[in-house]
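Need a sequence for this fold. Nothing fancy.
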């Protein structure tokens, strides 16, 4: 198991050491992509976020970052902010409108068709949540951060995260209740 503080050391060296940057990239690119894709709902936009995050690392924009938090929590905060910037630049409408609506892009988590359909339904429902609710659901339930870590990543209080999760859960139940999986004839 790698030493978590090692990532902070690599971050400090990344602008001068391509090996350090490559190590960080290979360790964390999947997490950053998964989060960006969950927020932007588009492969190309998520790839752009990944590239921008690690370009910023290479350009040493974070030379004053202090290892007070888990590295992955800090990196997710950078990824969320970068995804928000991409959304603003592209004037995208949060809520799943656009090229990413093709759910065939979802990874196949199971050969079980019922589970696959449930995952598609949940993904579709997530795209109807407001951005902040989607962020906290992805971080808390998909990425496994606790409430305090989620709050630190999105820049709010733990109580606010709990409120967003409550509203998101209610909205997801309502959406999924109104849009049940359609059975084939």
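Here you go.
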């Amino acid at each position: 198991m790698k030493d978590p503080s090692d990532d902070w050391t690599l971050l400090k060296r990344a602008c001068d050491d391509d090996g350090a940057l490559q190590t960080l990239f290979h360790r964390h690119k999947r997490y950053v992509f998964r989060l960006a894709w969950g927020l932007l709902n588009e492969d190309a936009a998520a790839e752009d976020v990944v590239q921008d995050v690690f370009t910023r690392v290479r350009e040493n924009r974070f030379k004053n970052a202090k290892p007070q938090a888990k590295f992955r929590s800090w990196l997710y905060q950078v990824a969320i902010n970068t995804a928000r910037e991409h959304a603003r630049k592209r004037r995208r409408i949060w809520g799943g409108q656009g090229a990413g609506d093709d759910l065939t892009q979802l990874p196949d988590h199971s050969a079980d068709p019922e589970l696959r359909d449930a995952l598609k339904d949940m993904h579709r429902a997530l795209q109807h949540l407001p951005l902040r609710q989607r962020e906290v659901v992805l971080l808390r339930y998909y990425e496994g951060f606790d409430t305090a870590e989620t709050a630190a990543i999105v820049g709010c209080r733990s109580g606010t995260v709990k409120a967003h999760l409550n509203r998101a859960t209610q909205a997801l139940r309502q959406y999924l209740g109104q849009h049940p999986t359609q059975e084939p004839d």
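For context: Confidence is low (pLDDT under 50) at residues 92-110.
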